[in-house]
Amino acid sequence: MTLKMPLNVNTMARSIGCLVDRTMTDANYLGNVWLIDEDKVATCAHLVSRYSNYLDALIVRFPGSAPGTSRDFGVESALFHPAFDQAAANQLQQVSLTEPMPAVPLQKHNAVVLKLKKKIPELSDTISFRVNKNLSLPIPPREQGLGGNLREIELFVVIQSITNARKEGIITICDERNYPVARIFCKDGRLVYAQYRNLVNEMAIYQIVNRELDGNFFFWAADKPNWEVTTAIAKPAEMVLIEASRRFDELKTMVPHLGGPETLYEKTIAEPNVEILPGPVKDYCRRLWDLLDGGTPLGQLWQVSNLDDYSIYVTIAELKRTQQIGIKVRQTLEESAEVEPAKPLQLAVNAPLAPYDQITSIHIDSHSGRALSREGSLLGAMRQEDKFHLLHNVRLVPEATGSPLFKEDRVIGMHCGPLPPNFQTPGSDSNLQGMLWVDCIVECLRAGGDAPLAARLTLTDMPLRRTAEPEAEAVAQAEAEADTAKSDAGSQAAPDAGIAAGATGVALSADPAPVAVSFASDGHNTGGKDPGDSTDASGSAQAARSSRIDCPKCGRTSQEGSRYCKSCGEELHEKTEAVRQKRRKSATPIFLVLAVLLLAGLGGLGYFVANLPKPKVVSGDTMVIPDKPWVKLHIYKKTRSDNTGDSATHCWKLQDEGTIYKEKDLIHLKLDVLKKAYVYLIYFGSDQPALIYPGLEVNNKVLDAGTSFTFPDKVSEYVEGNMQNLIGLEMQNSPGVETFVVLASPRKLQLSSNPAAVQDAYRRAVDDIEGSHSDTGVEDSLANFCKGLVGNDSLKDIDADGKAGAEKSIFIDRYLIKHVKQ
Predict the structure, then answer these.
(1) What DSSP string describes 138-173?
(2) Which end of the chain has fewer CB atoms surrounding its CB within 10 Å, N or C?
């Protein structure tokens, strides 16, 4: 059971920047970086390895807080992962002229931490020349054939000269530093094979012409291509070149009508209607459809779709004509950014990861400076012996290399590039992408002597808690309601078929509960089991109901799943079997007799006690039930408007307490502050407790009575002054129960960027609220609640004069949101 949490893309993206080589004239964006500390960023090592002796050639550019501005920083030092082989990486770069798809992005431990500096050194012409000279590949000898620059000799002339002379060999087109970007193999007067980035054969030729490549080219005599190929080009060379020229001319007139290369398109219907599309566009549509999610600009789709620009624009034109897609209007990062400085992103080093976990990528578009996002899934480990490299299916452009990948609102890894395309099946779409686990970043810091930062970044996830009794019962009730709904509707749901990687040859288990990918380097925080091990889950509710633990210090009884005693704070170590044996030994007949006599003696007082006013004290410790809550949470659901004239319009409607929601329902939370306090909202779904308000430490401030706020903070998206759609939390993986815990404190709690304290506070809050049956929450002593809480145990509940403060208590309330399948 999960609740899809919204990711504030623009807020997160302010901590993501572009790595720029300022010595190159064009195509100087190397990839993305992201903040891990105020003056440190992380990215892929292969982007920086060539510049280790020329760091002054690099700058890190963050989008600015005002339109048309940006913030640039110099690079002071580079801290590579200790196991990253720089020599091997540089050697792979050197053999790029003969290896069409170098394996540098997938090299092990491909991580680096860059320390930034505000002062950017001047870049003289001498330094630029020296950097370019040392970073360029040597120009190959020309004894074997033709060579030159495409600015001086057109590609059509080069190809016609070689084919007319019936020469046999390879034309290699390079960038300004002589790194190959395209190859064409000619034989017997024909164009036999071609490759440009991810495109092959005719599509590659068309795109080379569309992009007007103008770098150096070299021709070598060879009897076969030096890359993996299968099907040859069937058309004569003249026909291929004529078709390329026609597409190039038509593309010039087509681009302005579709909004230009920076335009974002998204689907307006769930599945494409390919039957109404003309012949070849049907196949193009199937290959483009999943990418039309507003995450890739029109001019960059060719890099992830295996189609040339002309095929893409023709398809977009037809889909737009048939109203199957529409333009997605997105504000630029500068227009929507907050005024606060960018914050380091939170790492989820110890978070359990499993196949099919939903992830989100965010990267900065190097062309427009916009924040772009796309969702996908983890697929598993790339190599069995390599715990750091994982597979995912979020297709990203090359400029997004090094960008962070999020699970909910924390970084679990960074994108390091796609797997080499499968040229055995021309035109096939490979969704396999590489991700480097964030623990590599921590190892960089430890090896580089920055142990304090490494420790701070790893102060995250605690062991997973067992399902508490009310939540377990709620889950069971939700499942029962789902079964009832199915039987009433007469539906027969088929089991999930699972997920496979398809034609790539990488497949995962079709088991509905897939085996988790174990990524923890030393088994910490997993209780000795894989993070995704669910063997205890089925019996957790029964165990919670049948077994409790007595505190060895104060004797108070707690749920078995409790880690700490809620009375004295003592850590509970007794196991279930030991508790049961202890109880068996102590349950002697004499105690049973005394218990019966005592109950009989007290029976006469039952009527009198029942009619007494209910006491405010919840238990024998510091907890009481307040007269009214400090904070009240309300739930709003996206509902079709009552306006019968516009059935497509939706609005938010307040829901009654106890409402049961359905799969895909969209909700948002509204919190009304009734008493001045610091307010915190903790969410627990199927993973681990997480603080969702305040999202940033700068927002960790006292709220006056009468204040209200929502989560997400923006629940409606406005475009050009009109509300276009509603933004909220989406119910997923029903049936299930989502838990929200509200804390209101008279003093500031240090929970932001402190996951250990968040998880401990959640457990204590749940232990406090259990059994109270209160509609107004409970109050606990602030000092008692914060005792032993990481970073918060110094808070006291006494006034300046040393007397107990009646107002020095913390308010706790919990809300359970149940949801079932449709």
Answers:
(1) PPPP-TTS-EEETTTS-HHHHHHHHHHTT--EEEEE
(2) C
Q: Which candidate, 71, 77, 33, places its Cα nearest to that of 55?
A: 77
**Omega before 694 within 30 of 0, i.e. cis:** yes
Contact residues for 324 (Cβ-Cβ < 8 A; gap 6+): 267, 268, 269, 272, 273
| pLDDT computed for residue 430 by the predictor | 57
For the whole prediction, is pTM greater than 0.70? no
Name residues whose C-beta falls within 8 Å of residue 506's C-beta, 6 or more positions apart in sequence. 379, 380, 391, 432
Residue 56 corresponds to which tokens in the numbers above? 């002054």
For the chain, how big is the Rg over CA atoms in Å?
Answer: 31
In this structure, how many other beta carbons lie within 10 angstroms of the beta carbon of residue 326?
15
Q: Which pLDDT value is given to residue 99? A: 56
Higher pLDDT, 791 or 565: 791
Asked if 60 and 325 count as a contact pair (C-beta separation under 8 A), the reply is: no
Q: Which 3 state secondary structure label does DSSP give 59? A: strand
Mean pLDDT of 768-793: 83
Which residues contact residue 813 at a Cβ distance below 8 angstroms, ignoring those fewer than 6 apart? Answer: 629, 631, 633, 741, 742, 769, 776, 777, 778
Helix ranges (H only) for 539-605 are: 540-546, 576-586, 589-603
Cis peptide before 689 (omega within 30 of 0): no
Cβ of 504: how many Cβ atoms within 10 Å? 17
- Name the 3-class secondary structure at 397: coil
Tokens 């640039």, located at residue? 72
> What is the predicted pLDDT for the residue at 151?
86
> Do residues 631 and 671 touch, judged by C-beta distance below 8 A?
yes
240 φ/ψ angles, rounded to the nearest 5 degrees: -65, -45
According to DSSP, the residues that pair with 670 across neighbouring strands are: 634, 710
Backbone angles phi, psi at 723, to 5 degrees: -75, 120
For the cut 80, the answer to whether the pLDDT of residue 534 exceeds it is: no
Burial class (CB in 10 A: 0-12, 13-18, 19+), 401: buried
The answer to whether residue 614 scores a pLDDT higher than 70 is no
